[in-house]
Amino acid sequence: MNIEHIAMYVNDLEAAKAFFVRYLDAVPNEGYHNPRTDFRSYFLSFSGGARLEIMHAPAMADPEKPPARTGYIHIAFSLGSRERVDELTERLKADGYEVRSGPRTTGDGYYESCVVGIEGNQIELTV
What we know:
Radius of gyration: 15 Å
CATH architecture of the largest domain: Roll
Number of domains: 2
Structural class: alpha+beta
Shape: globular
CATH class of the largest domain: Alpha Beta
CATH superfamily of the largest domain: 2,3-Dihydroxybiphenyl 1,2-Dioxygenase, domain 1
Number of helices: 2
Strand content: 35-45%
Number of strands: 9
């Protein structure tokens, strides 16, 4: 069994798409729009076959996203090397994104960093 895709609602659909394209080489589809409900979405495809659906609908609740909470906490991207983790972490930091941790080797042996990406959502970068 494989996970087919993961989905997330966002406030700014175009900014979210641009983030994943710019930093994580996502390839977006043409997008979908339901004019009756004003729901909009993109499927973003990544080189390893994973897909992320980003969605927007009017008047969505947007509560604070504390780092320690129940539910999905981050999405992790394997970049293939420690050097790429270091480079992308520095690039995101230079562009004003908060680096929450790392790059570092965790107690369970992962080399990773955690960056607060679009709209307060955590992005983990790992080898």
